[in-house]
Write a structure and sequence with these properties.
two-stranded antiparallel sheet
Amino acid sequence: MSRNKSIELKAYHNFIPFIHSFIHSFIHSFIHSFIHSFIHSFIHSFIHSFIHSFIHSFIHSCMHACIHSFIHSFIHAFIHSFIHSSIHSFIRSFIHSFIWDEPNMSTKAVYNAKGYRSFWKVYPSS
């Protein structure tokens, strides 16, 4: 074998391990980067989703509580005022019918110290 062939063969044999080492380190770094970025993305997305869902559920529950409380208060106030006015009206009409419907009865307007007018039963003089 000639000396040139021997040098070429030696260079070829030295080049193969270099290529092998280069490919091995490239694949190793590629896999390492891929796994690192995958884990980073997964953790980032998990944290983002967790925070987003926490904030969303917190806001949703606050809004639900606010709306529920508002509706409850509104209905309660409406029912209270309706019942109060109904009872008041019923009692007034009952009292007035009791006052006005007695036989031989007349009324007299009387003004109190504050200037409010009220009606009193006046019995006929015997």
